[in-house]
């Protein structure tokens, strides 16, 4: 990625003052580490009459993929090939905007300790960006920059000059010229509008992005005719953040109109007496629902199957009604983190006698899991490939056979309510599937019938009247040996999902050929 900023000067007002404004000496070539690669600042020309500063960003493609892996949004592209074959090393984007902020932070704030008078001076400026992604074309480029005092040249780049019939690409060669802007203003315009034109943030967009947008947009964004488009695209179309930013921009506009401070207008609520409750995280609601169901069952000896990093085990330990707690997970690393979380090495003798962490796979029967009052599978089943579910089903319901089994899993119908989750995406990069309420209930009823359990369903989180709750929980209660479709309880089910089990909603690259994995497969997993 490449960008240049040029200015002209006279002997009384030399162009090399640009070095003071950018805090980078014209006689030096400097490099800086950024989150996604190395930024270089150099001066192709530096004379009294003309000075040009160039910013070259070398993107580390491997670091870019690693940072985006598993996030499903705000990170690298979803397609596996597109993570490695893309325009990021060559075309200006949000990565270049991040580099601008990191390398020229003092210049963007309009600070210059050596020459304090310089930042406030408008000077002739020319900005060139050889390759800029422009979703909206050259017309949008002009609509964004011209109201800010720039003379804009946005030349579309052909897909291939040898084949003009292929038409134009979505890239433009951008040249901006202005006589009445300061360097700080120019940098802030670029910082906001480069990612807006690319329309793809390459890092996670959180609430602090609103503050960044308002800081960089101070003095120009409240009155910009394309304010809504700029705000929406800059915040990756997250409607709650966009709404917050637009409301704050409106306050700024009103304050400027009344020639007063924003604080004097926005004083309807006293923060010290504000009693609005913060939403409870879904993970907390899920643990509370599990604990309530365990209390109702009267269980005292509990298995946490797929315990992960031990959050539920930690909650169970706080309740003296649970006399024996066993956390099971296939991942040694997860169990190590759980042991640190629980402080097992510093736990008292009586407390440590109540808890045990053990490695094990839910795809195999395990005599150590027999005889317990209850077992919990919290957000576990969706991490298995569908052909492996019958093996887990038999290991838990057919072999271990606790009196109560609690199973929670995401409700895919609720995904439309997650504002940051693109359509068709799973909530986690490792989810092999996510079920609707009917699909989950169909599977649970089949399992209960086959193994002699009754099953009831409980919503976890706000039960939306249209799409249901964010998480669904099945409570299985053992009723005794009852013949099922595959024989009596204790008989392994067939190697394929039972009739009524839905198909996967999220494609996976791993497709086991049998219901029960081999030892080699499990070790690889």
Q: Please give the alpha-carbon distance between the first and last residues.
A: 39 Å
Proportion in β-strands? 15-25%
Radius of gyration: 30 Å
Oligomer: single chain
Number of helices: 17
**Basic shape:** elongated
Helical residues, percent:
25-40%
**Which strand order does the major sheet show?**
2-3-4-1-5-7-6
Number of strands: 14
Low-confidence regions? 69-79, 482-488, 495-525
Quote the average pLDDT: 82
Largest sheet: 7 strands, antiparallel
| Content-based structural category | alpha/beta
Task: Write up this protein.
By secondary structure, the chain is α/β, with parallel strands linked by helices. It has helices spanning 17-22, 61-68, 94-103, 105-108, 137-145, 183-198, 208-216, 227-234, 239-258, 262-265, 282-297, 311-317, 332-342, 349-352, 389-400, 437-451, 519-524, and strands at 2-8, 30-34, 37-46, 50-59, 123-133, 151-158, 168-181, 301-305, 324-329, 355-359, 374-378, 404-410, 453-460, 471-478. It has a seven-stranded antiparallel sheet. A seven-stranded mixed sheet has the order 10-9-8-11-12-14-13, sandwiched between helices. Strand 8 (301-305), helix 12 and strand 9 (324-329) form a beta-alpha-beta unit. Helix 3 (94-103) packs antiparallel against helix 6 (183-198), helix 6 crosses helix 8 (227-234) and helix 7 runs parallel beside helix 9 (239-258). It is elongated. The model is unreliable at 69-79, 482-488 and 495-525 (pLDDT under 50).
What characteristics describe this protein?
525 residues, disordered C terminus, single chain, elongated, alpha/beta
